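Revision sheet: structure tokens.
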Amino acid sequence: QVQLVESGGGLVQPGSSLRLSCAAVASTSPFDVYAVAWFRQAPGKGREGISCISSTGEDTYYSDSVKGRFTISRDNAKNMVYLQMNSLKPEDTGVYYCNKPRAPFWSWGQGTQVTVSS
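Predicted:
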């Protein structure tokens, strides 16, 4: 099992940047053998996967809504996954979570709130 802690969110203006971090703490499983994804839950909507990175970091995936603006990366030595978010838009507002890309999921962390507003 892996415990996840997301951080780095905040209130920013459109066009700004943020870097989210996902820390795998208290891991009883080797973190570096798993692909990891970022999910976003917009107000009143379900959780959607927006980006994913392979266990080695060689392969990445982005949803159309964030492609070209967001960059996912990982540092397996630190058990960390990052999401660099540039050119933020109001529609990027939501709570961001990290986890495995598909079930069975690890326990969900508390997420980190991103609010993009002028």
